[in-house]
Protein 1
Amino acid sequence: MAKVKIGIEGMDEALDGGIPEGNIVLVSGGAGTGKSTFCLQFLMNGAAQFGEKSLYISTEQDPEELHRQADKYGWKLDDLEKKGLLKLVYFDITANTDFFNSIQQLVAEFKPKRIVVDSLTTLTDTLLISGAGERESIATAQLTDAVSSTPRSESILAKSILFHLIKELKGFEVTTLLTSELKEDSKELSADGISEFITDGVILMHYIAVGVGDYRTMLVRKMRYGNYNKDIIPYSITEKGITLVDAAAEAEL
């Protein structure tokens, strides 16, 4: 199967050449783990190194904020946008009641090779709280075969939203990263408790404060259609973005 390279030295080797093309991969972690940086780096490398159209769909940060984040690492997103290789889109979920149709139109027009949706947590939480009409229509469509007396709890609605979103994304046949926020010391693989089962891959990112320093590790929990390193992978967030750490070399220091 063809592989899509992340472009981070050592990470593609850990994935036996990269992410299997067309896979939808969940990137989960707590605050400070670098999920957004990892995803932005995936898109930036795709555009800059491999000339692949890359689409960042954010429900949290607008393009200006993403540009400021990229500037810290010396990534020239402006150049890639001008070349038509990168598109950054912010969706205000509280105002946009037609999220899924908007995404379909965006993908159809831009035709990306790589997609990031950041984040699933904001998307599902906001749709549930807002009571948007789209939320109800999704739930209705997904639950038409259910017994009419079954209560539409938030859990059922959240699962319905996620199934609908991931079904839509799979239809695009585009390699996609989705982020999910985890609470500190969480043993779960996602905030919603279901996306890890319906995505093709899961990458967990962890952050541990040690004295005045910090320690970050990554773990590939699953990756359909491909082999991968099952060991814990140390990494740092440097002036160049996400950089893997040579654990053996670090132990000798």
Protein 2
Amino acid sequence: MTVDTSSRTEPAERPALRSCLQRCRVGAVEVVTLDGRVHLALDPDESLILDDLDGNHSPAELEHLHGPTTRDLLDDLDEVGLLVGSTPHEEPAVEISAAGVEFAGFDRVVACLDRFGGAALASPWFLTVAAVALIAGPIAFTASSPSPALSGSVTLAVLVVWELVAIFCHELAHGMVLHRSGRRVGRAGFGMHWGAISFFVDATDALFLPRRTRIIQALAGPAADAAIAGALAIAAAVLAPSPASGLLAQMAVMGWIGALINLSPVLELDGQHVLADVFDTPDLHRRSLDALRGLRSKHRRADLALALYALVALAIGSAAIAAAALLWTTVYLEVIGTAWNEGLVGKAATLVFVGPTIAGITATALHRLRPHPRR
């Protein structure tokens, strides 16, 4: 990006924000973005500083107005290229972080897929087919009796690969809606989520969409999970009782489990984001839990309503997780037992399928139970 700075002093002397920045409020936090490529979250005090970054104040004057933390914010803004005259932040092609392995350029992948198939995916006929699969899939699943004839180790190997493909389709659905809404899909990557390897996409730019579009964008992932699962269940019913029918049915159950977990309001995933937008309360999760904790000392109607929401969300979320766990154990317990008894290969397949999830859940539980020092 080329910025005309001929009529300005150097940013170090009179810092000013780039004119192309976009800002939006998310609860008590303000998010600023540069062309959807750089996002910075600011607390309320830091947001006040932005209003004075107009090129008329020196860093010393800003520090006098807003306190000693001003220089740290100016350094951050300059580092990521949000100030006039500063160099825009260059994203590394590959980056290893606590979230996992991230890579740039996924927006180009989504744009390419949208160019060759986006219009078809968004067409009324395709959406109608997806809706039919979403509704008819569970009916076909309960009405049929597929009987798998594949070995346990082969089944688990296929399910491990399919789980990654399904998660990729889930994130791609989020990204496609974001791209078709005129916003930019951020970095993508893969990492560990509750012990399982999963893909993820940075959809921070969705914060700048209208509320109704944000709801659609958040629902796109679980809807894709459920629609694909429905199509697999219908295929399993049609092919029953062939060897492939049981495997397709298990793949369908995995999709429904993914949709249930992502829609659970107790987890900070798609379902929680949808409810936050429905109630137009971006920090709904935090506020409701705070209200629940302070129920004994706070008696205002708003606090009681938030506390009631927290209780309902916890109940629904726990029920969804329990249903997912029941489906998981019901469908996979026999397959896991069969694979474990198939020698070394079967035991290896079982550990690859089950081990990371158990280890991840255990590590997460130990981290939450461990006492943390007060700040």
Protein 3
Amino acid sequence: GNYEVVLGPGCVTNLLLFLCLYGLNGRPVEEGRSFAKVGEQQFDASINLRDDVADQISVGIPFDIEGTPKRRLDLVREGVTSAICHDRRTAKALDTESTGHAVEGGATWGAVPSNLILAAGERSPDDLVGAIGRGILVTDFWYTRILDPRTQVVTGLTRNGAWLVEDGRVSRPVRNLRFTQSYLDALAPGAVRGVGSDLTLVPGGSFGVGPYAVPSLHLASWNF
């Protein structure tokens, strides 16, 4: 069923990678399979997402594999989709400029951000859990696969610990669960109930990107 969740930074990193790989990326935009609509409120107002190698928390080099200098790129501002990542291929196809996001395999995958930062909130992870009547605390996701890029429906498993939360307290562990959930719906306006203060560097892993700096999130609904 559908449960409120607190997603740890590992889960949030996975969520953001899918949003950027299949949406906020010039390749799927060019091919008409991206959800991204620049200038529209597609996310909750609490979501502020940028790519910035120069931030003091970031780790990386100041240019991409094509030699294009990297610069701060605000992808989402207060829930409004504000930019798309480009490498030289997608920039040429869409008559714009590269944003410095070329990666290995870019001919297939397009432009992928390497230094994402999701702005932290003011609530501790304990406060996020304390706001849940009945829900699930999830540490990490595993074996996630996209089902529909336009709606960002992803299927996957939990791993490394999941716990039932009742009346604001962790009551017991639960077995690993499979989920099928639209990542876009999970972050839609009104769906984000809290953003953690625990900004954490999490390895990006795929495509040689990362680490990403992300906090925990309290979300209104997740379909297990």
Protein 4
Amino acid sequence: MVVKDDQLTNKASDKAPYTVLSIGRFSPEKDQITLLRAMRYSRHSDEIQLNFAGFGNLLDKFENEGNRMIEEGVLKYRPQFGFYKFEHLRELISESYLYFHGALVEVEGLSCLEALRGGVVPVIADAPLAATKDFALTPQSLFKARDARALAQKIDWWIEHPEEREDAGQRYADFSRKFAIGKSIDSLIEMYRSVLDR
């Protein structure tokens, strides 16, 4: 499905909370803990709702960290954790202001592409073993992997520049279309033909 301009419902807003969405299993290589830690350095931590879509053995650790930040007054909105069906996930994407992608090792970044297709601006870890960083269209969408302070700075920048966030959301939605399954299959066929023709 191609997302059209009028289907992008996550328009920039100056009203809290700003939802930051992360999608992926709760495991060390996805590095969601950096997103939680970034809230300690963000100027807008009390305006941010973190939403973690996934499951995994680090859930208790993440929940404990989120609860501790609520108790300390770092966060106003308790982080949400859940494993969602596709339709609910699409709804979460449409409601999100930013998408966090902290993977340290990854070859496809499908969850990031899904978020981009929905017009959500990503903040992506610049990790040597993760291909997803190539989806970043602006330096403001990249942060040094595992660096919570750097991530907080990028999140704050997007919150403080809502018009740029709205424009970037449309650019990312347009960009994601070139990765549609039909175009990807055509590219794969062309690659195989070029090899066979040698």
